[in-house]
Design brief:
This protein is of the alpha/beta class. It has 13 helices and 20 strands. It has an eight-stranded mixed sheet with strand order 3-6-2-1-9-11-12-10, with helices on both faces. Strands 5-4-7-8 form a four-stranded mixed sheet. Bound molecules: aspartic acid (ASP) and magnesium ion (MG). The site of aspartic acid has 13 residues, from α6.
């Protein structure tokens, strides 16, 4: 038989008996693996950690804008793509990153294996497009780690209890990484991204925003669900319930990032407010004459992620992400309710664990907004958050005014 060039693969030694410095899970976002050069540099980072003796698991996102491109492609073919097929399509982006990274690692003389979510044992419920991880069957990962391999797991995806490929929602690779860190008993989970960490506000809106060193799970959860783009909210919930410390840091620098961990006394005493986050758009619905249980039951059934709920008398006001608009409209029409919605509002939220024990934050927030001539249409609070829906056009100004009023830039 003739030998062919493409059968030649570089020699790969076995790392199986290297010193064991513990399992680490590293997650790289889309920009971190945005092109072949960046993928190769991720490969070098992983090899360095392996050479330091760690059992290395890396969760990769799709390269750059791949997921958006795939979604656009689907939209060009079908106005309402079948959810199962959409998951089959969008899940390939992460698989591409992992296979390429494995090749790059082989070329560095190390062993690596790429796994789809399904192969990695990420078992989810059956909700296409927004599946939740219900179990991690990590046997195959353990076996590969035992053989000394660097394991690359395709983020954002799993296999449902009815054996279908599912995806976990936008930003879902974070959830994959945190769930794996919990299942593998990793000390913490490293989230590599294109920013240095979590900031007191979006530096594009507030140039004086400061990088935070530490945040509690609760603060990060409030920030992530109120518009801080840096981590998927659901993944922070998973981290909190399994107590997996998170280190959000830059792929492109070696600097220390932001640690997210259990709250301690120091956090409570140090900062009243940790940050101000925003969302430029959030749809606000107004419904009258509905039974609460029926309304929110039906919205939950349709996987609409309801945020703020305010009820006064017969009228219920609630907000939900712009992406859930079609599902929400269909559900409200289906219930035969009279409803209206506003698309011209965004949301500005102040978050801080210290708020719990310090009165006057609400007063200062309202005074600041009033002073800036900004009218809050809906206000809602949690023990560590004050959220105001304000006109989308005034969101940036509200963020700047609050950041300044609470002096978040200097500490
Ligand atoms: N590629 C997917 C997305 O962009 C998942 C992820 O990056 O975490 O939403
Ligand atoms: Mg992405």
């Amino acid at each position: 038989m003739a030998t062919t060039d493409f059968e030649r693969v570089p020699a790969v030694g076995s790392d199986a008996d290297a010193r064991d410095a513990g399992t680490i899970v590293l997650k790289f976002g889309g920009t971190s693996v945005g092109d072949p050069e960046k993928l190769k540099s991720v490969a070098r980072r992983l090899v360095a950690r392996r050479e330091a003796g760690h059992r290395v698991v890396a969760v990769l996102s799709a390269m750059g804008k791949t997921t958006d491109d795939l979604l656009d492609l689907a939209a060009e073919v079908s106005p309402r793509p079948h959810p199962r097929e959409l998951d089959m399509l969008v899940s390939v982006g992460e698989r591409i990153s992992c296979a390429l990274a494995a090749m790059a690692i082989h070329d560095l003389g190390h062993e690596a294996i790429s796994l789809t979510g399904s192969q990695a044992g990420i078992v989810t419920d059956t909700v296409h497009g927004k599946a939740k991880i219900v179990e991690v069957r990590a046997r195959r990962i353990h076996e590969a780690l035992d053989e000394g391999k660097i394991v690359l797991v395709a983020g954002f995806q799993g296999v449902s209890t009815s054996h279908e490929v599912t995806t976990l929602g936008r930003g879902g690779s974070d959830a994959t990484a945190v769930a794996l860190a919990a299942a593998l008993g990793a000390d913490h989970c490293e989230i590599y991204t294109d920013v240095r960490g979590v900031f007191t506000a979006d530096p594009r809106v507030v140039p004086a925003a400061r990088q935070l060193t530490r945040l509690s799970f609760d603060e990060m959860l409030e920030m992530a669900s109120s518009g801080a783009g840096v981590m998927m909210a659901r993944s922070v919930e998973v981290a909190r319930s399994h107590n997996v410390k998170l280190h959000v840091r830059s792929t492109f620098e070696d600097a220390e990032g932001t640690w997210i961990q259990e709250e301690d006394q120091e956090m409570l005493e140090k900062a009243l407010i940790s940050g101000v986050v925003h969302q430029r758009e959030e749809t606000v619905y107004r419904v009258s004459g509905a039974s609460r249980a029926q309304l929110f039951g039906a919205l939950a059934e349709a996987s609409v992620n309801v945020d703020t709920i305010v009820q006064t008398g017969e009228e219920i006001v609630f907000s939900a992400p712009v992406e859930d608009r079609d599902d929400a409209a269909r559900t409200l029409d289906g219930l035969g309710l009279a409803w209206s919605s506003r698309d011209d509002l965004g949301k500005v939220s102040l978050v801080g664990a210290g708020m719990k024990s310090h009165p006057g934050v609400a007063a200062k927030t309202f005074a600041t907004l009033e002073g800036a001539g900004i009218d809050a249409a809906v206000v809602s609070t949690s023990p560590i958050k004050i959220a105001c829906h304000v006109p989308s056009t005034q969101v940036d100004r509200a963020v700047q005014a609050l950041h300044e009023a609470f002096d978040l830039g200097s500490r």
